[in-house]
Amino acid sequence: MSTKKLRWGIMGNAGIARGSVIPGVQLSELNEVAAIASRNLEQAQQTADKFNIATAYGSYEELLQDETLDIIYIPLPNHLHKPWTIKALEAGKHVLCEKPITLTAAEAEEIAVVSEKTGKLVAEAFMYRYHPRYEQIKQIMASGEIGDVRHIYSSFTFNNAGDSKNVRYKKEWGGGSIYDVGCYPINVARLLLDAEPEAATVHALLSPEHDHVDMMAAGLLEFPNHIALSFDCGMWAAFRNPLEILGTKGKIRVPSAFVTGSPGSGNFFVEADGVEREVVVEHKNAYALQADHLARAVKGESTLSFSIDDAVKNMKVIDACLKSAEERIRVVIQ
């Protein structure tokens, strides 16, 4: 087994990179952040200095030309995910791309073709699912402790509506709450049920003040075996990110389903036959776990738990949700 750390290049100076991903990669066992690029070299250098990153570039092209890099992390605005992921793959790099991986399932399929052609891996950055508590939750569901699953509920909301210049509020750039945070409840339901939804119905607040993107959305996904996900997401509401799995004998309640930045935030509760217990989860950095998972796959020590094919499937659901919200119809997912 190789002990050489994989070298990461960060494409862009986004807040998620500076606040979460770079610190996570630096905490991981198998990786190091070796370079960062921005269209503004001064900004790239400032971030490089802050995080002790050896190299700063003033263009994304220079980053991809760096032959010492193994993995490129892409936190660019959503409409740039596809072109730069493809360019990175063609430059011989593996890629971790922020969610949503593209704007449509068809675009995600284009990435899958290039990934297959180049032999380079692509992972979508849903960091929450690398946290070990989700394996614990799935084991409890399988054990029968809460009975048969009848329904899943989840939400992810925050309020940033006053930041009118934010890229989240540019429709052509892939703005809107379904792309930004609704993708999490959608993704977690697919993960927990090991199934794909058959239809989507979504109602949304399409705000003229924010380029008509969905600032709030509430939806229903129909899964096999008469199970549904009800979810809401928003960028103009109080912060919350809970999850509840309802069974015939009890339920699993996760107060903070996707954000585990502080000790205790990963804990969840199991209620069965009227008695509730708290499951205390060891505090772990989900971003570091995500980086190490990708590194082991790149090294050939394991396979990706969530391949580009999973990202394509997730985008098919998002496509249906957006169509339903815009046309106010129930959409069957093919």
UniProtKB/TrEMBL annotation:
By sequence similarity, the record places it as follows: Belongs to the Gfo/Idh/MocA family.
Q: Does the record carry Oxidoreductase as a key word?
A: yes
What this protein is called in its record is Gfo/Idh/MocA family protein
Keywords, A to Z, come to: Oxidoreductase
Q: Where does the GFO/IDH/MocA-like oxidoreductase domain lie?
A: 134-253
Q: Which Gene3D superfamilies has this protein been placed in?
A: Dihydrodipicolinate Reductase, domain 2 (3.30.360.10), NAD(P)-binding Rossmann-like Domain (3.40.50.720)
Biological source species? Paenibacillus yanchengensis
Q: Where is the Gfo/Idh/MocA-like oxidoreductase N-terminal domain?
A: 6-124
Q: Does the keyword Oxidoreductase apply?
A: yes
